[in-house]
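Table 4 source record.
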Amino acid sequence: MTCNKPEPSDLADPALRLRATAAARGDAAFDTLIINATLIDMVTGEHRLADVGLVGALIASVHPQGSRTDAAHIIDATGGFLSPGLIDTHMHVESSMVTPATYAQAVVARGVTTVVWDPHEFGNVHGVEGVDWAIQATRDLPLRFIVLAPSCVPSAPGLELAGADFDATVLQELLARPEIGGIAEVMTMRNVINGEPRMSAIVHAGLAAQKPVCGHARSLTGADLMAFMAAGITSDHELVSGTDLMEKLRAGLTIEMRGSHDHLLPEFVAELNRLGHLPQTVTLCTDDVFPDDLHQAGGLDDVVRRIVRYGMKAEWALQAATLNAARRFNRDDLGLIAAGRRADIVIFDNLSDFKASHVFANGELVASKGVLHHAPHNTFGGAFTRSMKISALEEDDFRIASSAKKLCVATIDRPRFTRWGEAETTVENGFVVPPEGSTLIAVAHRHGRALAKPKIGYLREWGAWHGAFATTVAHDSHNLTVFGGNERDMAVAANAVIAAGGGMAVATNGVVTALLPLPVSGLVSEAALCDVAEQFAHLRSAMDDVVEWQPPYLIFKACFGATLACNAGPHQTDQGISDVGTGQLLVSPILKSVE
């Protein structure tokens, strides 16, 4: 997508417009003419027989089939369906554990031409340099990246320590860049609602820049939801039910209906079908896609496929993924096949499988029959491959010392929707015995800004663990996080990750059974997607032998959000057990001695 001017101002080029105008009149030939397809009209929902003429990056004409034949190149799309390129309104490349170039190679040939990337994982590890790298790594790719400025570095200031700290001054500097399309999901909900100065100033920076301020409004309702929106936040992807969807639609939020919570999608589709029309404020996003899922099923195209399978009209699904998404980010050049718009076009074989036969980006045919024509240029990690500022750990690092005989300790109960609990336990050989039925969680700072020793907590309702799992992908500060049923396996898994320069490891009976190195920032690999996907799938399988998952909440994915301290309830961080709702921080889970 290389051009002399930044988008969308590149389409204002007078010579380009005059050439497209002449072609539309019939006084000049098109560069490319797409013939014999059925156009899905994103405005009316109609299926129309139409041919489309392209000049450079522009759509010059949409006209009756067979009325023009003059073009340098003709694409016969007989039997195909024309759609604008798909737009993913909220995603994290890092969740797929590959570089932006590798991600582009995976999704463009499937019909995804634009993604809105919140690089707050790189921001939390490397600060502004991480955002700089994100921008650099997305240049000259066949996939358009609208990069957002991370709003929550860290997600819960004072309760966790990331690799950097973004205040309003940093956000103002980032927002001044033309490459930055807005403020990424504002997750520190309670501070926004309460008018806390730091978060208020961050939101105000987005408003002053006149760029969208995206939200993370999980479980907000009533007055809290109104306050969150009144502060200036205009979108949400953290939907928890059909009722929640409808309340937020009625409130006026832009909805980013995400594919990463598949168990909720049928309920959302049913609510929208009952409404009888698709609101203009419904868009689609992936949020997080694991590498094996990306490799096998795709990105936003997979979300479109699934919601149609769950009963949504194909025309609605495409409108949400194109026109509605473009309007959300004030990109009037995108999201519609019409004269004067940008020539991002997909030809789908049908409206059920949504298999792309041809993909155009900026008027260039970049993929055919599921294959990208040119491998994108990869930007390598460089110094980001040295992000593990932590030494090897020992078994005792995963124990809590005490001179008491019997204790009352705090517990973190339930995955995802956590709550405080208490349990009595004993002390043996000077160390606290984990409460019966609990799973150990340990978080160690790895960014070089604090002591790199684990803080320990006790999880309940996480099943019986027969081993351990260590990861540096741990939202959102991405410190080294370890789960386990015993200290020995926790140390083995943790040290495997440290030695790999970051990533994930599973250990059982003192042996590493699966390892996925993620040496770039402890977040992504420079390897090919197929290799990362295979390693991740093996690791997932190894985890099935460690704990018996209980969907929809006790699932493998829950491990990556267990440290998300901005969400309501207690969460383990590198500083202790935190609760953003009360501002409470327990350095140790020990509450008191019991006589």
